[in-house]
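Design a sequence for this backbone.
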């Protein structure tokens, strides 16, 4: 996020689904975005490299974005608006994680990787954040 030219402010506690707040500018007016980061390291089970189960999204909104990062999948990231994420992910219908979402960005099968086409436009696309700032007045 810093490399993309944003001012990044980390939260002290992650109790509101916000890992950091990003500030951009539209003209002279500041624009703020809430960011939740989810990551996979090379130590993760191969089957989970592109899947994030049990994602809690209590208040999807226009200025909340999820950044998914998978180190073992070629250091790929996806920048996904929360409202799109909720509309295109699988909702857990029962059990301990009822109401949460499973986000499948890449399915691992044997030696191959199959990307979910619903999320391909968000792959390595911090442009999504820049575009949001350009079209938004200060909030």
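Sequence:
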């Amino acid at each position: 996020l810093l490399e993309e030219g944003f001012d990044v402010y980390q939260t002290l506690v992650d109790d509101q689904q916000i890992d950091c707040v990003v500030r951009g500018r539209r003209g002279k007016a500041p624009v703020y975005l809430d960011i939740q980061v989810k990551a996979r390291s090379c130590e993760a089970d191969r089957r989970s490299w592109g899947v994030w189960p049990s994602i809690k999204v209590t208040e999807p909104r226009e200025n909340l974005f999820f950044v998914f990062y998978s180190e073992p999948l070629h250091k790929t990231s996806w920048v996904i608006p929360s409202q799109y994420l909720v509309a295109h992910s699988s909702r857990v219908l029962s059990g301990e994680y009822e109401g949460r979402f499973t986000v499948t960005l890449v399915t691992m099968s044997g030696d191959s990787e199959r990307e979910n086409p619903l999320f391909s436009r968000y792959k390595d696309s911090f442009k999504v954040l820049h575009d949001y700032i350009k079209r938004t007045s200060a909030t």
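The chain has a mean pLDDT of 92.
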